[in-house]
Amino acid sequence: MQAIEALRNAWHLSDVRRKLLFTGLVLLVYQFAAHVPVIGVDRAALSSILNSEGAGFIGVLNLLSGGAVANFSVIAMGVYPYITASIIFQLLVPIVPQLEALQREPGGQEKLQRYTYYLAIPMAILQAVGQIAIFSSFNTSGQPLIVGFGQDPLVTVTVIATMTAGTMFAVWLGDLITEQGIGNGISIIIFAGIVASAPSNLAQLLTTTTQPIYNAILFVVIVLVTIVTIVFIQEGVRRIPVQYGKRVRGRKQYGGASTHIPLRVNPVGMIPLIFAQSIITFPAIIANLFPPGPLGDSITQTFGQQQGLGYWGTFFLLTVGFTFFYAETMIANQNLAENLQRQGGFIPGIRPGKRTQEYILRVSRRITLVGAVFLGTIAVIPGLVDMLNGLLFPTEFLSGGNTLNAASVITGSGLIIVVGVVIDTMRQLEAQLVMRNYEGFMR
Question: Is the pTM of this model over 0.85?
């Protein structure tokens, strides 16, 4: 009830109401764009692809794009080329000395942001070609997805340019939300896509499966348990105590304060899931480039149809590995030990400098193990549900291949995004209300 009252208070503030309405208008524009197809798309071929063996993987892409993939719209790639470019720069900054020096300069962050936009364009071009190739590999209708693509230079350039422009348009909409709306615009765009696709996926689950009541109950249980676990893990923090030395100048004493360094259990969000999802599609794509054979068919069935222990085990290991890699890169990029030493702070019982950095990394790795296992488990929930369905209803589910299950309505990565965006937006509204002496959401 307190959250509802706080929302009512927020709506009564004219500037906050304007931001909320502006955010809703931008999201409406995004949904309109999600239904504008790329020129030349063959609807029959697209329908065949959506019902093919790769429907599970395509369904994940469609969920994260708000239905744009199912329409093969001009924004079918969403904002993911920009996210990929951002991740690349985050990984390169601690490795390339010039970028690290640029980041510390006045205005350096703005320059890096501009370089990220530049890199997003070639990444969008590559993803457009790759996405069309992936779709074509699942095409069983005999008709090309886009007539003339790859043969007619004008059609090829037009399609690639349109999809690239669609991605940059989506990024621009996200920036508008960040500047004039509520919340982080890019996250809000992804959040809206997930929420927009969830009702139709749930309706499909309840109308096309033979156990609708079981699936409905399982869906509610999975969502509730997953949300509680995500909030618990995402908000989990290990506080490392920090003491600042005392300094005497004249008759005044400075410093001597105590504080802490907050290390999150999961500092990387769902970025490792994006990495793992991208990498795990490559075996099936590469197998389709070679002549048919037992090995190629096995790889395609495992990684293309998202089936079996091999696929889900690989997905789990990739997610855990990327979580450790990205978390350690982030800790190293923050230069916590160097900043503490410069400000006169130290961890009690630990020498400043290298020993402090080693201690922070050691603690970070221990708590990251919990976050990594958590993300890995979230990633494989659809596989676990498939196994459960196969045990309970072997006739209906075990032979069903890629049948939609209760965990696929909103994937684990989708729930992480939804929960994270909701918490972040609530905090921003909380800040707006606190400035005006209202009680907020987070009490």
Answer: no
